[in-house]
Amino acid sequence: MKIKTRQELEAKRAEYAASLKTQKKQILICAGTGCVAGGSLNIYARLQEILKERGIKCSLVLEKEPHEESVGLKKSGCHGFCEMGPLLRIEPAGLLYIKVKVEDCEEIIEERIINDRVIERLVYHDQEGKAYEKQEEIPFYKQQTRVALEDCGRINAESIKEYIAVGGYSAVAKALFDMTPQQIVDEISEASLRGRGGGGFPTGRKWAQVLAQDSEIKYVVCNGDEGDPGAFMDRSILEGDPHSIVEAMAINGYCTGATKGLVYIRAEYPLAVERLKIAIRQAKEYGLLGENIFGTDFSFDIEIRYGAGAFVCGEETALIHSMEGLRGEATVKPPFPSEQGYKGCPTNVNNVETYANVPVILLKGAEWFSSIGTEKSKGTKVFALAGKVNNVGLIEVPMGTTLREVIFGIGGGIKDGKKFKAVQTGGPSGGCLTEKHLDLPIDYDNLLAAGSMMGSGGMIVMDEDDCMVAMAKFYLDFTVEESCGKCAPCRIGNKRLHEMLQKITSGNGTIEDLERLRNLAGVIKDTALCGLGQTSPNPVLSTMDNFYDEYLAHVKEKRCPSHQCRELTQYFINPEKCKGCTLCARMCPVNAITGDKKVPHVIDPQTCIRCGSCIERCKFGAIYVH
Fold first, then answer.
1. What is the DSSP annotation of 199-249?
2. Any long-range contacts for 488-494 (C-beta under 8 Å, 24+ apart)?
3. What is the pLDDT of residue 569?
4. Backbone dihedral region of 292: left (phi > 0), alpha (psi from -120 to 50 degrees) or beta?
5. Which of 115, 410, 491, 559 has the CB geometry, 3.0–4.6 Å to 485, for a possible disulfide?
6. Per-residue DSSP letters for 68-137?
7. CA distance 515 to 33
8. C-alpha closest to that of 342 among 327, 318, 329, 324
9. In angstroms, rounded to a whole number, what is the distance separating the alpha carbons of residues 169 and 172?
């Protein structure tokens, strides 16, 4: 069934919206990767069984009118509150149930769907025990502003009908019938949308560069590679709202004169790939991709290209080479992809989150979008909040929100009541920010000035138990592994940096090593070929700037203040606490603990491998690390 005109689209929207209204209640099961891993699809299947057993009409898809009222059961995208998954939202009440299990399904149908009663034990309770029934009232959600994630968790992620019902494909229709390509560029430019993939390059300027090229063949590329450790923003958008990306790419195709779109996505995202395939197939069936869209002269199609997980292929020139079947290596710019990109043709490359903002900008206007955020960073930003924070999850906040508001407001503070130490923004290319940065408004320029960067949106929180030298080594280990090897500063320089950090964390470092570390980091930053190499020393430089005392403790005192570097720690048994139960000795894998029954034991430091099994097993707290 193809939609051939704008009027047909509006007629279908009215039909699907009316069909949605006949679902007197809607059960939205979070079917993002996290909740699926927690068993949400089993919950979905069980709810379907129970509704059938009870004789309650269950709508898995939108049906044509007229028909009787039903309960809509949907697999939605990520709801964001990953720490509390599997999640289940019930509309129209806006009710959110957390940590749902298959065993809860019978009660959910009986109490909520049939009798309209709230199951108290399944709603969120804060640390003071206060219950929050409605999702929007939960502090985790209350402080967010959802733009790119607006429909994630709100509609069936696999239904083009529901996407159309809530306004989907109106933006591409507006672009085709009401705007010229230049007007679209102007609108995106006036909105001040900057690339959400990490660089923050003005999106309107990039689109204008492609539009200005005199070429019969142009390409639109969506970068869904997302390789930062702990990042899952783009994946969640593709899983929860794939049609928004299809629509945005079509808008960009019309704007720049391209007829072919390519989505580069890592093969490790099977659910995102599946949902994107469904969206592309549905869009083609409805005539929203393909030849003569809406009966106009504009034709546009999208293909999926797979990446093998190389971090460097998040850089646009390396990504393009990978799509061409070549080794994923960065190249010197200029020429930029907007001039010579895929197959030597002008190519527009934006990441998933950037595209997700495009339809809403065209529908609500540049003035609305630019009213959110700071002077130089407009709109919102999606972050994957992870690490030692109570509320791990996917969040979206206005630019200018402070780190304190994110970590202690939305994030609920540090786990187990421990002290905040640092937050890594921007993934392996970013830096570690400290307590003095907590009131820093988050935007591109502020993070750069503080020694970090926005990156694609990874945000990893660390507490007092984390060693910052070891943390820098962890990120360098990742960068060394992921370097494409094309330029010497990255290929060799980062290897030498990693070796120096290994030397320091093993207790063999010197003061001279710290000076060499800083100097080499500066050289790599100034001379590496691409953004990956240029930003790779950031974790080293930022931790040296903010935690130099920890580096000094490692090289001068030969100790790790956080007790994380094994070679610099030693295990001891407190004779006053040890009862001689022998449990630690029996559990030690290398027989480093000796002693008779009911007599305090001792640990041989030469034999001990510092595995920590003795501390875990001791019932009396007699074993400690120094």
1. T--BHHHHHHHHHT---S--EEEEEE---STT--HHHHHHHH-HHHHHHHH
2. 489/523, 489/524, 489/527, 489/528, 489/529, 489/533, 490/524, 490/528, 490/529, 490/530, 490/532, 490/533, 490/536, 493/520, 493/523, 493/524, 493/528, 494/524, 494/533, 494/536, 494/537
3. 84
4. left
5. 491
6. --EEEEEEE---S-GGG-S-EEEETTTEEE-S--GGGHHHIIIIIIIT----GGGSEE-TT--EE-BGGG
7. 44
8. 324
9. 5
Q: Do the Cβ atoms of 351 and 223 come closer than 8 Å?
A: yes
Q: Which amino acid is at 512?
A: E
pLDDT value for 65: 59
**Neighbour-count burial of 80, counting CB atoms closer than 10 A to its CB (0-12 exposed, 13-18 middle, 19+ buried):** buried
Burial 213-229 (b: 16+ CB within 10 A, else e): beeeebbbbbbbbbbbe
Token match 């407009």: residue? 378
Residue that the structure tokens 């009862």 belong to = 579
CA 485/CA 503 separation, integer angstroms: 23
0.70 surpassed by pTM: yes
CA distance 53 to 146: 37
Using alpha carbons, list the distances in angstroms from residue 107 to 85, 104, 559. 18, 5, 55
Low-confidence ranges of the chain (pLDDT < 70): 64-68
The CA–CA distances, whole Å, from 412 to 392, 408, 415, 422 equal: 9, 5, 9, 15
CA 527 from chain center: how many Å? 29
d(C-alpha 227, C-alpha 224), whole Å = 9
Q: List the beta strands (DSSP E) in 449-585.
A: 458-463, 571-573
Q: Measured between alpha carbons, how far is 540 from 535 in angstroms, rounded to an integer?
A: 10
Residue 301 CA: distances (Å) to CA of 35, 312, 491: 32, 27, 38
Q: Dump pLDDT digits (tens) for 610-620.
A: 888 898 889 99
User: How far, in Å, CA of 353 to CA of 142, rounded?
Assistant: 21
What is the identity of the amino acid at 539? P
CA distance 71 to 93: 13
Q: How far apart are CA 171 and CA 191, in angstroms?
A: 15
Q: Identify the pLDDT of residue 64.
A: 66
| Whole-angstrom distance, CA of residue 33 vs CA of residue 457 | 18
Q: Residue 30: helix, strand or coil by DSSP?
A: strand
101, 88, 114: which is closest to 38 by C-alpha? 101
- Of 291, 311, 315, 137, nearest in space to 221 by CA: 315
pLDDT tens digit sequence for 162-210: 999 999 999 999 999 999 999 999 999 999 999 998 788 999 999 999 9
Q: How far apart are CA 337 and CA 346, in angstroms?
A: 6
Q: Match 């809607």 to its residue by tokens.
A: 26
pLDDT for 612: 84
- Report whether 581 contacts 611 (CB < 8 A): no
> Would you list the DSSP string of 494-510?
HHHHHHHHHHHHTT---
Q: What pLDDT does residue 66 have?
A: 52
Give the number of other Cβ atoms within 10 Å of residue 50's Cβ.
18
The CA-based angle 247-249-254, given to 5 degrees, is 95
Name the nearest CA neighbour of 509 among 565, 562, 568, 554. 554
